[in-house]
Amino acid sequence: MLIIGTFDGVHVGHAALVDRARQMAADEGAAVIALAFDPHPITRLRPAEAPPRLTTFAQKRDLLLRAGADDVVRLDPFDGLLELEPAQFVHGLRDRFRPVGIVEGVDFRFGKGRAGDAGTLRTLGAEIGCRVEIVEPVDVMLGDATVAVASSTAARRLILAGRVSDAARVLGRPHQLRGRVVRGDRRGRTIGYPTANLDTEVLLPADGVYAARASLPDGRSLGAALSVGTKPTFTDAPTRACEAFLLDAPRASADDPRIAGLNEYDWELSLDVVGWVREQVKFHTLEALLEQMARDCRRAESMLRAAPARARRTEEVA
Q: What is the pLDDT of residues 227-255, one digit of tens each?
């Protein structure tokens, strides 16, 4: 049983595809295989218009497997796949995977020039003896009581607006920033807030301060106050940074701000962005900044304590 798409973010609409494919696969005694384009096909067609990533391929694979897929196969849009006519594309799927069924959403487009749609897929599926099922979009209730169709585009829009709680409703979980800890300007350690500076290819939320849950490479989970932005109190440079102050993190020693058990840099960090704390502000004194940072940490801790209840509600909506 096949599902095909970009699957960026693996949101609740994608999960619905996996669920339906899982049901159909059980009837046929088949496996569910997700064919995931990576990078986004637009990077091949119109590179300047390519959307920012919600997930790396590794994240995408993990999430699809957790959603119920048995395997995830990467489709490279630079391998000529986008030049195939719709019939060529479907016949290629038959030859390579011998699918008993294909499950897609109503807006699925495929083949050269996006010429194929759901109706085309049904017709071609009948030609190769493959059952095709089309799944309706999934609606999600946002925090302001408006309804949005779950999509990668909707998730990006919400994240870029700092509406990370609403993005979690679309994704079915908090937006996760994953990358490696790199050296920053090392200013935080001088003011009592040593931070882990994250280098990531995943979409950053709007500039501001957020509550996040950090996952360390040794399996530890810690709360974090996450700052995203240009650090206007210290510089006018336009470069954005993603810095996490890990709450209650054990330090190597009183004089060593490293997290106990980890190197100073070059380790993988994942941050689940749970909630928005405040917008980015320029402070005129260091004292004012430090007072606000203390309040930010308390607010982040409070939000993280409440997060499990919100997560359950998100699952119910999804």
A: 999 888 787 667 899 999 999 888 878 77
> Mean pLDDT, to the nearest integer, of 176-204?
91
Whether residue 280 contacts residue 274, with contact meaning beta carbons closer than 8 Å, is answered with no
Unique residue bearing structure tokens 């089309």: 134
Instruction: Give CA–CA dist 88/160, Å, rounded.
Output: 38
Q: Over the chain, what HEC string results? A: CEEEECCCCCCHHHHHHHHHHHHHHHHHCCCCEEEEECCCCHHHHCHHHCCCECCCHHHHHHHHHHHCCCEEEEECHHHCHHHCCHHHHHHHHHHHHCCCEEEEECCCCECHHHCECHHHHHHHHHHCCCEEEEECCCEEECCCCCEEECCHHHHHHHHHCCCHHHHHHHHCCCEEEEEEEECCCCCHHHCCCCCEEEECCECCCCCEEEEEEEECCCCCEEEEEEEEECCCCCCCCCCCEEEEEECCCCEEECCEEEECCCCCCCCEEEEEEEEEEEECCCCCCHHHHHHHHHHHHHHHHHHHHHHHHHHHHHHHHC
pLDDT digits (tens, 9 = 90+) for 298-310: 999 999 998 864 4
> Taking Cα atoms as reference points, which of 133, 123, 137, 147 lies closest to residue 12?
137
Q: Encoding tokens for residue 255? A: 């004089």
128 φ/ψ angles, rounded to the nearest 5 degrees: -100, 10
Cβ-based neighbours of 212, under 8 Å, separated by 6 or more: 174, 177, 223, 224, 225, 226, 244, 271, 272, 273, 274, 300
Q: What are the C-alpha distances in Å from 255 to residues 75, 184, 190, 264, 297?
A: 49, 19, 11, 13, 22
